[in-house]
Amino acid sequence: MNIFFELVGVVAGTLSASTFFPQLIQTYKTKNVEALSPKTFVILLCSVVLWMIYGVYIGSVQIVFFNAIVVLCALTILVMIKKYKK
Distance between CA 69 and CA 46 in Å, rounded? Predict the structure, then answer.
């Protein structure tokens, strides 16, 4: 595989996975989950699990690795929604 496209995959995966860090940090600090939709995170979780399955099928380490990070983020946010929901 071309090193340029491998690098594109790593950068894209890093950017995609990092989009959840601000929400995780904000939710952890404030314990405020009222504006978060658990349905959104369940749908997201299902989609990234499917992306991981696809990544395994095509042998893409980047797809599997970065989607695994998103799975962990989505699960963490769902746990916080359950824990902090009033």
Answer: 14
